[in-house]
Specification:
heterodimer, A: 277 residues, alpha/beta, Glutaconate Coenzyme A-transferase, 2 domains, ten-stranded mixed β-sheet, three-stranded antiparallel β-sheet, 8 helices, globular, B: 264 residues, two-stranded antiparallel sheet, 14 strands, 26% helix
Chain lengths: 277, 264
Amino acid sequence: MAEIVSLAAAVEGAIHDGDTVAMEGFTHLIPHAAGREVIRQRRRDLTLVRMTPDVIYDQLIGAGCARKLVFSWGGNPGVGSLHRFRDAVENSWPAPLEIEEHSHAGMANRYVAGASGLPFAVLRGYSGTGLAAHSANIADITCPFTGERLTAVAALRPDVTVIHAQRADRAGNVQFWGITGVQKEAVLAARRSVVTVEEIVDELDPRPGAVVLPAWTVSFVAAVPGGAHPSYALGYSARDNDFYVAWDAISRDREAFTAWLEREVLGPGARRAGAAQ
Amino acid sequence: MSDTVSETGGDYTADEMMTVTAARTLRDGMTCFVGIGLPSAAANLARATHAPKLVLVYESGTIGAKPGWLPLSIGDGVLAQTADAVVSVPEIFNYWIQAGRIDLGFLGAAQVDKFGNINTTAIGDYARPKVRLPGAGGAPEIAASCREVTIVLRQSLRAFVERVDFITSVGFGDGPGARQRLGLTGAGPQKIITDLGVLEPDPRTGEFLLTGVYPEVSAADVQGRTGWELRVAPSLAQLPAPDSAELSALRRLMSAEPSEGASR
């Protein structure tokens, strides 16, 4: 049953060194504040799982939290490269980063298998690409009914999934809408989960297309208004496209990145989102 | 490369020529899977001009999005707010792409080879890459299962290579019959649109031939920026420059400011 706690307490309770952690949100509702809290608590040796590592994992990788990255598209959307990710892969800075990569369809289906309690999912994908040769989690499979050759992908079962949502009620039932991505599957696939929300309300009134995660599927809920920034929460904020563009210069240079990290995350003056409920 | 087409002395850029050429290939009412950047600009240009019923599908799960300006990411709020339907990510890939419901997929590339195979993964050796690229994203399954694919990228010796360093998304594999052997259901790439002209596959061999060039561009210019021995179609088309309606619609789109608020 969901406990409503501070962001710091949620991260402390749910995420430990060496864990496999999925922070999901497909462009929309990316749990950035929680990512910065993981950096602040100096977690290490994490296996980070996410379809689009994006700026959130660029920060975690640059801060030295990750040992391995499991992903399907590692760019800064509409802007260019993720420079901290590239520096880690190309130059092992600040630490070597093992990678396992998939297609979006493969990753999405791996979460579906995890949420379904199945060992693998089946799709028509990867065939003829170079991807399967580099992952033990992609294999050929033959349809027992038609004989068609298909692809199996192993289930993803993160230790923890972290997402951001628009709202929760006081019991910890979570509601999010707009582009809902793969968050439902990622939470249901994980052993534990952390959900940051824009606000905690008395009652969740229905929203078109909303996903509701019952409180008993969630470990921790923390109120973190603006906790998706520079991503956004439909109905609460707009995507800060200027920040994504500015990130290119910040992240391109190790010193500029380290200064940003100290100023915005680790230093005494850094803003601590969700410190108070 | 230079941003303007100096050869023509014309008043449009190479990117505008590419975008307009890509937009012209889109038929009204078709379903089109678009990525961010030039494909999104081309699809929205087509929607603003000759194809108002074009159905734009973005991999964030927004189906039938009608943005009034060009979004920076595939998941900007305007896409969800203007879509006919917003579906989850597993659903967009399984029910919509894999099931063959999309007529055309637009793909970019860092490298493409003469069989239309695409690399967006790594330049050089995979384990020790010279350049680590973003990776696959939705492209492998778009390339596999959309009814057809259009590849859009600027022409250069670095990008147009005899063999890609890594096959991220399959075109015609190693040639005739490869797609059937691999069980790929879509027809594969039918056009490569560049800043010099258009390449299309020889149906017998799967090898891309030069079939059209822009004003003031010669086949020799294109060969000069192609890393394989480029064959030229017997009837090389001279593709027309953008007309004023296309240019003004495109520029209006490119300069349109987001007016997205935080309204509930």
